[in-house]
Design brief:
The complex is a heterodimer. Chain A contains ten helices and 20 strands. In chain A, the strands form two sheets. In chain A, strands 2-1-5-8-10-12-14-16-18-20 form a ten-stranded mixed sheet, with helices on one face. In chain A, strands 3, 4, 6, 7, 9, 11, 13, 15, 17 and 19 form a ten-stranded mixed sheet that branches. Chain B is α/β, with parallel strands linked by helices. In chain B, the strands form three sheets. Chain B has a ten-stranded mixed sheet. The chains are: A alpha/beta, B alpha/beta. Chain B: Belongs to the iron-sulfur cluster assembly SufBD family. Chain B: This is Fe-S cluster assembly protein SufB.
Chain lengths: 438, 481
């Protein structure tokens, strides 16, 4: 049985475990219909031209994880940003782990999607926000919607700021030979509120894992949202991350994506600007080796005047890795005075690595400033020579330059401990010993 | 200010297509529709050898199974391929007569177009091979060229006189089954130009062809083949205009360039087909496949100024096969009213140390849509490949759109690729600056647009640059108040 059939039949089993009368179930039924019709995207589709899901569909994934597994915090501590105190929402094989987590209802809600989808006190919010910005059309998003049950639910009311950042961590223990996870997150940040979220998916063994995640983020007027995605997974773990962001007047949303590992990673990052004077920031650092594949697919839809967007993606590709960047900016007719910038710089360091990039602009308004730049190249020979002439061996000099190349994306990271951590990962990946405190 | 925005807009909309006249020449036209019989009939009419007929039929059979492509960012009513007449020749055409015998009506037509044949012959030192509705009418300077060993003639004649060259090269760069329109062209092409520059010869003059669709309801399927043998050089100009007609006319051409070792081809196009009226009615569908093949140390340079056609679908490309070969693409695409253009280039780097440059300037006004679509591909063996691409778009008004779809694929670590694109409008401060110095808004816009397009205009041969500059002004008059 191929994966699509398996998922369709699993949906029937899934229905036995959820409240069929709840309005959300109608959304799920619609969604599975769409997935049944469309199936997994193929390379023939423009959006999937450079990324094939054929390999994934041949794996016999378990759709429902078995019972809760126990893990010792000391064994997995390194996957957390443990240097600072944070709220934590932790899932082991897709199941919420209460003893590793730290949730709150104190002024803000940092809790579970399963609670939000079933408990009456959340019904009003769910009615307004659930599946409202996520695509009802894109097959993998609707696949997630159909199976939406668990994930993180974060609600920050007007003028509130949570005491500490929030970490969402998904761990896969490898108890299943191959496991498919479909977390569903909902983040609502009300007027003038603020939140910082770090998300990580981590497999603990060499068993296959496929994660098809959907996150919806709503940023109201003057809201300030920072979302960090850390992707440094095992070479048997694949991730399809679908993030949909709806922004209102004067809000700022920054999404940083750090891709350092995993077998296949696809990031669909979609910004919809539904207000004025806002800023959307999309940044990414990708450093790959082996046969890893990362595909960044971004969309910024400017639908109102006087907004800005800034995209900066840097990639270093070694060994047999493949990188894809497809950035799309749409500026509607009425979105005058839009400033949209997009930058994608890549360095290939191996003969077998490939980079495919397609920065795309679709502009319908005249009074705008839109630009995109894209480069594929090597390190500056002069800079390399300069370092070598000062006694730094070529290998280290190369690493140092690449480190500097990737590093400037990190300037906008607003959690210093996270910045240090990412810096260390980058240094590690490139084999540079950073002898100074960052 | 001399004009208000409203007045300018009105003037622009009512501005009739300058070249919209219809010359009454008796035509020899085939019945509408396309079938194997028609393909055979075209071939027979052209007195073609059997291999050519077979070649056409093979293309036709493949075409029948192909589907019209839909990926381009253009929307239009699909042409009915059975409602087109595939052959239309002015009856009075006779390839053997001299220039002086050419039908005075035709000469009048060219005079209106501003390309008086004899004047060009005498003053501009340009050899013109004029194609009116599929048949080449007058070929000038043949003698001068022949002395150098240069072959420049209608492709139908070349099939008769130089079958070995045509057979060897035709379809090698654009295979007859390359795409829907190329296959259609391969099956039904009626004429076009053929040019061969022998080894080491520098063509002493610019070679030029004017295409023009005249008869209503006919499709123009011309085929151009330019071969520059080792160490030779040629500059080739192509210009197109079509009279005003209400129904959409189809134009599906194929151009193949072959630059052998150390050769250089410069191919310039000014395309000014009828763009349809201000309501978007009528106009030419321009679906063209242009591709060049570069051998070692050779260079192909495409320059195009696209101001006409209702729908344009055109990607002049370079296959950089030989080491150290160079590909260039300079383009200005102007769309106004309801025009749609999806144009760009492909640079395929196969050889070592290959270089390519892409400069594309898109100007959209009215309710038009202007897209740049390009591919830069560096294959794994293309060491030290270098590409620079720049796509700038200028928008006038908020009813038009500018789109950029650059595809960049690199498989070699020594590749250096840069791509940049910007979108902006004409700055009010720039216009103000001009106004302040006594230049009215209309002139100021022309000045700014010319400046914006300068990098490309500079690449055109002199005769064309002046005409192109004028075309830009005409196409955009009154677009901004």
């Amino acid at each position: 049985m191929d994966l699509k059939d398996k998922l369709l039949s699993s949906f029937l089993a899934f229905e036995n475990n959820v409240d069929l009368d709840h309005p959300v179930h109608e959304v799920r039924s619609e969604a599975i219909k769409n997935f049944e019709e469309k199936g997994f995207p193929s390379k023939k589709e423009e959006a999937w031209k450079y990324t094939s899901l054929n390999g994934i569909q041949k794996v016999d994934f378990s759709i429902f994880p078995k019972k809760e597994n126990t893990l010792e915090y000391k064994d997995i501590k390194k996957y957390f940003l443990h240097e600072i105190d944070t709220y934590k929402i932790v899932f082991i094989d897709g199941v919420y782990s209460s003893y590793l987590s730290e949730t709150t209802h104190d002024g803000v809600d940092v809790c579970l999607m399963s609670a939000a989808l079933t408990k009456p006190q959340y019904k009003q919010v769910i009615d307004v926000y659930f599946n409202k910005v996520a695509s009802k059309d894109e097959s993998l998003t609707t696949l997630n919607t159909a199976f939406s049950k668990e994930g993180a639910y974060i609600y920050i009311p007007k003028n509130k700021v949570p005491k500490k950042p929030i970490q969402i961590v998904h761990l896969a223990t490898g108890n299943e030979a191959a496991l498919m996870l479909q977390p569903r997150n909902l983040v609502i940040v009300e007027e003038n509120a603020e939140v910082q979220i770090i998300e990580r998916h981590q497999s603990l063994t060499g068993n296959e894992v496929l994660t098809n995640s959907v996150t919806e983020i709503f940023a109201a007027k003057d809201a300030n949202v920072d979302y960090y995605k850390v992707q440094n997974d095992e070479n048997t773990a694949s991730l399809i991350d679908n993030t949909y962001i709806s922004q209102k007047d004067k809000s700022i949303v920054r999404v940083h994506t750090f891709s350092f590992g995993g077998k296949l990673t696809r990031n669909n990052l979609n910004f919809y600007q539904n207000g004025e004077y806002m800023d959307s920031v999309l940044k990414g650092v990708t450093i790959l080796g082996e046969k890893q594949h990362v595909d960044h697919h971004t969309l910024v839809h400017h639908a109102q005047p006087n907004c800005e967007s800034h995209q900066d993606y840097k990639g270093i590709f070694g060994e047999k890795s493949t990188g894809v960047f497809n950035g799309k900016i749409i500026v509607d007719k009425i979105a005058q005075k839009t400033n949209a910038f997009q930058q994608n710089n890549n360095v290939l360091i191996s003969d077998k690595a490939t980079i495919n990039t397609k920065p795309q602009l679709e502009i319908f308004a005249d009074d705008v400033k839109c630009s995109h730049g894209c480069t594929i190249g090597q390190l500056d020979e002069d800079a390399l020579f300069y370092l070598q002439s000062r006694g730094i061996p070529k290998k280290e000099a190369t690493a140092l330059l690449m480190y500097a190349f990737a590093n400037n994306v990190l300037e906008s990271v607003r959690i210093p401990e996270l910045k240090t951590r990412i810096n260390k990962i980058i240094a590690n990946k490139l084999g540079v010993r950073v002898g100074f405190e960052l | 200010m001399a004009y208000t925005e409203e007045e300018l807009k009105k003037e622009l909309e009512t501005k009739e297509y300058e070249y919209g006249f219809y010359t009454d020449i008796e035509s020899d036209t085939f019945p509408k529709g396309l079938s194997e019989d028609i393909v055979r009939a075209i071939s027979k009419k052209k007195n073609e050898p059997e291999w050519m007929t077979d070649w056409r039929l093979e293309a036709f059979r493949v075409w029948e199974k192909m589907e019209e492509p839909e990926w381009a960012n253009v929307h239009y009513e699909k042409p009915d391929f059975q409602a087109i007449s595939y052959y239309s020749a002015p009856k009075s055409a006779d390839p053997n007569k001299s220039l002086e015998d050419v039908d005075p009506d035709l000469l009048e037509m060219y005079r209106k177009l501003g390309i008086s044949v004899d004047e060009q012959k005498r003053l501009q030192n340009v050899a013109v091979d004029i194609v009116v509705d599929s048949v080449s009418v007058a070929t000038t300077f043949k003698k001068t060229l022949a002395e150098k060993g240069i072959i420049f003639m209608p492709i139908s004649e070349a099939i008769q006189e130089h079958p070995e060259l045509v057979k060897k090269y035709m379809g090698t760069v654009v295979p007859k089954t390359d795409n829907f329109y190329a296959a259609l062209n391969s099956a039904v092409f009626t004429d076009g130009s053929f040019c061969y520059i022998p080894k080491g010869v520098k063509c002493p003059m610019e070679l030029s062809t004017y295409f023009r669709i005249n008869e209503g309801g006919t499709g123009q399927f011309e085929r151009t083949l330019v071969i520059a043998d080792e160490g030779s050089y040629v500059s080739y100009l192509e210009g197109c205009t079509a009279p005003s007609r209400d129904e959409n006319q189809l134009h599906a051409a194929v151009v193949e360039l072959i630059a052998l070792d150390d050769a250089e081809i410069k191919y310039s196009t000014v395309q000014n087909w009828y763009p349809g009226n201000s309501e978007g009615k009528g106009g030419v569908y321009n679906f063209v496949t242009k591709r060049g093949l570069c051998e070692t140390n050779s260079k192909i340079s495409w320059t195009q100024v696209e101001t006409g056609s209702a729908v344009t679908w055109k990607y002049p490309s370079c296959v950089l096969k030989g080491n150290n070969s160079v590909g260039e693409f300079y383009s200005i695409a102007v769309t106004n009213n309801f025009q749609q253009a999806d144009t760009g280039t492909k640079m395929i780097h196969l050889g070592k140390n290959t270089k390519s440059t892409i400069i594309s300037k898109g100007i959209s006004a009215g309710q038009s849509q202007n897209s740049y679509r390009g591919l830069v591909q560096v294959n794994s063996r293309a060491e030290n490949a270098r590409n620079f691409s720049q796509c700038d778009s200028l928008l006038m008004g908020n009813r038009c759109g500018a789109h950029t779809f650059p595809y960049i694929e690199a498989k070699n670590k020594t590749a250096q690729i840069e791509h940049e694109a910007t979108t902006s409008k004409i700055g009010e401060d720039q216009i103000f600056y001009c106004n302040q110095r006594g230049i009215d808004t209309e002139k100021a816009i022309a000045l700014i647009v010319n400046g914006f397009s300068k990098e490309v205009l500079n690449k055109l041969p002199m005769e064309f640059a002046v005409e192109a500059q004028k075309l830009l002004e005409i196409s955009l008059e009154g677009s901004v108040g």
